[in-house]
Amino acid sequence: MPSSRPGLPEIGRTTTELLAEIAELTAADLPTRGGRTAAYVYDSGRPEVREAAEQAYLALMETNGLDPTAFPSIVALERSVVGAVASRLGGDAATPGIFTSGGTESILLAVKAARDARPDVPEPRIVVPVTAHAAFHKAGSYLGVRVVTVPVDPKTFRAVPEAMAAACDDSTVLVVVSAPSYAHGVVDPVAEIAAMAADRGLPCHVDACVGGWLLPWLSDCGADIPAFDLTVRGVTSLSCDLHKFGYAPKGASVLLFRDEAMRLGAYYACAAWPGYTVVNSTVQSSKGAGPLAGAWATMQALGADGYRELSRAALAATRRLIDGVGAIDGLTVLGSPDATLVALGSDSLDLFALADEARARGFFLQPQLSLDGLPANLHLTLTGVSERGVTELLAVLAEAADAVRPLGPPQPPAELVALLGDLDFGSLDNAAFAALLPAVGAELTGPDAGRMAPVNRLLDALPPATREVIVTRFLSALYSPHLAG
């Protein structure tokens, strides 16, 4: 892993030199184009669209979203973007909305609005399926809201309306459903759960961060998509990321509300200091308008026809993948995905080793650990460019399965599991934690760099609370000099 030069140079460096170092630093990164990285990135495969987004992003890079009265371009662009999203998700140009930096910020604001609408509840709770995104747990931690998780159907991986209803009480301030859940790509029964929430006087948020700008276009292409948007009775807010299937640059999401009062609850204002009066629609105060401009340009450059074609291609790739996986001994698709997100499971193969083998052959699959009876799996997000490479992907999956089949199911060393379970990580500094990593199979440099199966096997065998401690300490050590290559 190359490392950038420490400190500030005495004399400024040239652009050529800086870009050369950036090229060196990114040489080991996963590819962001071409569909070989089946998580994290979304590629439209259209250079002209990326060029439009890049130029628009740069044009407003220095524009500060802190004060839209100083930069009226922000208001015009946000109205356009939010209006376009609302028009596809059951609203119109008048639907209240906010442009945010991503799904996590949208979710934080949705939870804040629900919490602040109930100042009479001293210990607010939100009720979520266990498959709800981790961002809701983050919102709960940041905002002092208890997150109540509810088991899902173990076969379909969808939320169970009766179980969600049973989890609600007088302290509940928000009910959450996913469209779809990231882990398995399935849409929860939004209509039933939202109606239950409405009957109880509770708001219902639809986390459509990953699917909001995909599912309507899939429906146009003939896919059977359950109702999930603002047309559904009881849905009071909805989040939709544009840096996912909107193919916009990172930092682009939209949070929609059914009514203006809820949007006002997401805002923050402060006049209790001697400086300028602060009023923010997002968690951020100062923020560059580049992501907003990039999202607007991407949407304008692609248009409805472009999104429809990209969705058709992603859907075709997903169907081919699901059919092809059925022919690979030991692999199966979990549930019946509604979107172009697929989770691969297995009772006989070491999926973590399979992910390493696939990565060595040029495809990154995202490991997902087991939780509350839900099995470990490998996640794939198929996008508009995936249709071009699905045949090769299936060949790689078959080869990788053959390579790991002799290993059998994952078997983490029992002694290491016991050691990590008993270890006091609070007593370790970054240097000590970094020294521990080779013993658990984590190699960040050398020929085995990137092979994470030993680490994932161990994490999967540990309880979630211990996993969280370990990965938090790892992140701390990663940014310290002790893990610099």
From TrEMBL:
InterPro entries: GrpII_AminoAcid_Decarb, PyrdxlP-dep_de-COase, PyrdxlP-dep_Trfase, PyrdxlP-dep_Trfase_major, PyrdxlP-dep_Trfase_small. Keywords: Lyase, Pyridoxal phosphate. Coiled coil: none annotated. The keyword Nucleus does not apply. Its cofactor is pyridoxal 5'-phosphate. SUPFAM superfamilies: PLP-dependent transferases. Belongs to the group II decarboxylase family. Sphingosine-1-phosphate lyase subfamily. PANTHER family: PTHR42735, SPHINGOSINE-1-PHOSPHATE LYASE 1. This is Pyridoxal phosphate-dependent decarboxylase family protein. It comes from Kitasatospora paranensis. The lineage of its organism: Bacteria, Bacillati, Actinomycetota, Actinomycetes, Kitasatosporales.
